[in-house]
Amino acid sequence: MPKIQLKGLDDTVFVLNRLTDKSEGVIKRAIYDGAGILADAVRANIDTIKTGGPSDWERRRRETQKAGLRAGLTTFKIEEAGGTIAGGVGFDGYNELGQANRMIARVFNSGTSFSSRQPFFERAIRSARYAARQKVLSEIEDEIDKLTKG
92 and 82 in contact (C-beta within 8 Å)? Predict the structure, then answer.
């Protein structure tokens, strides 16, 4: 009967144990870095929102809403739920007019019966998704290399 003998398995088991002990923190840091790239893209796209209107009052109101979006942009808490670690980019708080920034972002992004659609958020996420994914993967690979060598 053939015999299979594995040498060096103890080192592999040791590395795997180290990876599982530290994997959650590594993944959370990597996701946070990726969310930062997405947030930067959304922040840049907020400036593309058109604020012209039929009156000077309307223009000032939309500028105030844009300023609220800039101030309210945030990365959500990165946490584990159901075996996956997830985080996000979105809007929090209220602008100077007392309007929820999430609602204003939705109005600009989707449009309404009296406001044209300006998908600034969708465009930003679509354009930065690949870069964010690559950043997350490179961060995780770097951390795995550090753990396996150290």
Answer: no
